[in-house]
Design brief:
Elements lengths: L11 H28 L9 H29 L3 H9 L3 H11 L4
Helix pairs in contact: 1-2, 1-3, 2-3
Length: about 110
Amino acid sequence: MTTQPIQPRRSWPLLIWMIATQLLMLISLAGWAALAGLSFMAFDGGYSTGAAIFVGAIFSYPLIVLLCIILAWLAYRRAKHRAAAIWSSLPLLPVVLYFLFLVMPIG
């Protein structure tokens, strides 16, 4: 008598959300490439700690995106759907905050 392992339930809306957000993150890397090239102008006035932190933050974006994608798929595989949704959505937070800042009325 053989027993088959129990397959975790798939969450189709979560799967669609993960794929959509990761495609958006892939598209955002095109904008990142332009910004990364221009970020070195932060050193035009000479070296400063603030400029080094700024350039480091800009160049860490693809690593953060890659880490979140890996953690999201690992969580999805282990049927931890809430964690998968959070890891998949986390890199979109700066983009959402930026657009909220643009739309907020000033004054």
